[in-house]
């Protein structure tokens, strides 16, 4: 099946499998996959490494604003595909730790951080044939995206997925902490003032609590066939 040159926006709660589906769509239809959450995670890691986040979690916003002027954050090609880079350093692994996860929502709620990330995301969107996942792609970053998907699943299913993902990366997570972090992020992401997580009116809802990845791709194919009048 051929999909026209469009932007596909995939938003939704944490650990709903947005990136897994987005990567598969990118692979199947030769789209560029972009993980907007990785940008917020990169900013958070950079803030942590520069001592701008205190023990109690408070953020030195004045310091961070100044530090962003020196932050070279980008997606670059790697041996395994592409990854998030700070300068020449691939930080793909460091940005996925629970420590970064526990600070990323407050960091991403800061308006100048959102502007910093949005500028970079818009630059990628100019080329079309992009599938991007995040929290506000269909509502704010690309409100004109031709296909918008809003993903959701029960908190239990999502916490288990995040737990398994961390174990597979060699980490030793505690389920209660993973669940606590997930619920906290849901709350902050949906209640922040700037670009809160919400479903765009024209987004298709995908609840994958009881779906396999294959069923999700069949669902996506059906959506595109209907939307673009593709017959195969
Ligand atoms: O998708 P993720 O869990 O890697 O995202 C990390 C955080 O970044 C998430 O808690 C909220 C924030 N985020 C955002 O505010 N807007 C986006 N478009 C993507 C992520």
What does this structure look like?
The protein has a single domain (7-218), classed as Rossmann fold (3-Layer(aba) Sandwich), CATH 3.40.50. It has helices at residues 18-29, 36-49, 61-68, 98-108, 111-125, 137-141, 155-168, 175-191, 213-228, and strands at 7-12, 32-35, 73-78, 81-86, 89-90, 130-134, 147-152, 204-207. The chain has a five-stranded parallel β-sheet, with helices on both faces. A three-stranded antiparallel β-sheet has the order 3-4-5. The chain has 232 residues and is an alpha/beta fold. It is globular. The mean pLDDT is 94. Helix 2 crosses helix 4, helix 4 runs parallel beside helix 8 and helix 7 crosses helix 8. Bound molecules: 2'-deoxycytidine-5'-monophosphate. The site of 2'-deoxycytidine-5'-monophosphate has 14 residues, from helix 2, helix 4 and helix 8. 2'-deoxycytidine-5'-monophosphate (DC) binds at residues 14, 36-37, 40-41, 104-105, 108, 134-137, 185, 189.
Parts with pLDDT < 50 across at least 5 consecutive residues: none
CATH architectural designation: 3-Layer(aba) Sandwich
Strand fraction: 15-25%
Element-by-element helix/strand order: EHEHHEEEHHEHEHHEH
Number of helical elements: 9
CATH superfamily: P-loop containing nucleotide triphosphate hydrolases
Q: What is the radius of gyration?
A: 17 Å
Overall shape: it is globular
Q: In CATH, what is the class? A: Alpha Beta
Catalogue the ligands.
2'-deoxycytidine-5'-monophosphate
Major sheet: size, sense and barrel closure?
Answer: 5 strands, parallel
Please give the share of residues in helix.
40-55%
Number of domain modules = 1
- Average pLDDT over all residues: 94
């Amino acid at each position: 099946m051929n999909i026209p040159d469009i932007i596909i926006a995939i938003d939704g709660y944490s650990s709903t499998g947005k990136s897994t589906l987005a990567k598969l769509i990118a692979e199947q239809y030769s789209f560029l996959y972009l993980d907007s959450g990785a940008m917020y995670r990169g900013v958070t890691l950079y803030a942590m490494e520069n001592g701008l986040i205190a023990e109690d979690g408070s953020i030195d916003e004045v310091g961070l604003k100044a530090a962003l002027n020196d932050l070279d954050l980008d997606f670059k090609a790697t041996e395994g595909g592409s990854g998030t880079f700070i300068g020449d350093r691939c930080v793909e692994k460091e940005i996925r730790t629970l420590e970064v996860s526990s600070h990323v929502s407050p960091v991403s709620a800061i308006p100048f951080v959102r502007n910093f990330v949005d500028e970079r995301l818009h630059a990628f969107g100019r080329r079309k044939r992009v599938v991007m996942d995040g929290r506000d792609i269909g509502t704010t970053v690309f409100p004109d995206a031709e296909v918008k998907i809003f993903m959701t699943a029960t908190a239990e299913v999502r916490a288990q997925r995040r737990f398994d993902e961390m174990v597979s990366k060699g980490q030793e997570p505690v389920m209660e902490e993973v669940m606590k972090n997930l619920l906290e992020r849901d709350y902050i992401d949906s209640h922040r003032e700037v670009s809160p997580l919400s479903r765009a009116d024209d987004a298709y809802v995908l609840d994958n609590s009881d779906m396999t990845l294959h069923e999700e791709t069949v669902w996506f194919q059906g959506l595109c066939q209907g939307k673009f009048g593709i017959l195969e």
